[in-house]
Design goal:
There is one protein chain. By secondary structure, the protein is mainly alpha-helical.
């Protein structure tokens, strides 16, 4: 089995766990939103469209911090984390970008025992 096949099998396993937990298969945006909420640490009944985008940005920065692309700079007065980019992201075709992000999502969930 090659690395890409292994990644896909692990991704399907994660999707199955999320379906079991939430009752439906989440897309990547939903997964990023959930990670963003986890990292933000404040679950609200409603988030504005801008806050949802900010939560997905927090998720991406948190995910890529695992590989040294970002680091947490601090948290503002409202509890929102802010990150600093440490190095450039690799330039990849869209399909490889998706695999790169999926790999980081899987690492995140493994690290957090989910």
């Amino acid at each position: 089995m090659n690395v890409q096949d292994d990644l896909q099998v692990r991704w399907w396993s994660l999707e199955a766990k999320l379906v079991e937990r939430f009752g439906k298969k989440p897309d990547m945006e939903t997964i990023l939103f959930l990670i963003g909420i986890q990292e933000f640490g404040d679950i609200k009944d409603k988030f504005s469209k801008e806050q949802k985008q900010d939560l997905m940005h927090i998720a991406v920065c948190s995910l890529l911090a695992q590989s040294g692309f970002y680091e947490l700079e601090g948290v503002d007065g409202d509890g929102w984390p802010h990150f600093r980019q440490l190095k450039d992201l690799p330039i990849q075709p869209p399909h490889e970008q998706e695999l790169f992000l999926k790999d980081h999502v899987l690492l995140y969930f493994d690290k957090h025992g989910i």
